Amino acid sequence: MTILENWQKWTSFLGQNVMQAESSGMPKQMIQQAAVQIGEYLAANVDPKNEQERVLSDLWGVASEDEKHALANCVVKLVQNKHVQ
């Protein structure tokens, strides 16, 4: 099973990487931009593997550029909060 097939593993993986980026001093704006780039890559190259990814993919597909940034920022916050708990 790949990491993208399980939502819990995917968000845990993202959370760990966000925390690592923060602890190494990466600015928040860079993390947010990376999240947008990851979203663009996933939308263009990866079929959603579960319900949660399908919802994100559908939202990404109809979002404006500003909304994509907001959505990516929300995903970053989600994984940060899950990683802290």
Q: Determine Rg (CA atoms, Å).
A: 12 Å
Name the helicity range.
Answer: over 70%
Compressed to H and E, one letter per element, the order equals: HHHH
Secondary-structure arrangement, i.e. CATH architecture: Orthogonal Bundle
pLDDT averaged residue by residue: 91
**How many separate helices?**
4
Overall spatial form? globular
CATH classification, class level: Mainly Alpha
Q: What are the low-pLDDT stretches, counting only 5+ consecutive residues below 50?
A: none
User: Quick one: biggest sheet?
Assistant: none
Portion of residues in beta strands equals under 5%
Oligomer: single chain
Spatial gap, N to C terminus:
25 Å
**CATH topology annotation:** Cytochrome Bc1 Complex, Chain D, domain 2
Structural class: mainly alpha
In short:
By secondary structure, this protein is mostly helical. Helix content is 79%, strand content 0%. 8% of the residues are buried.
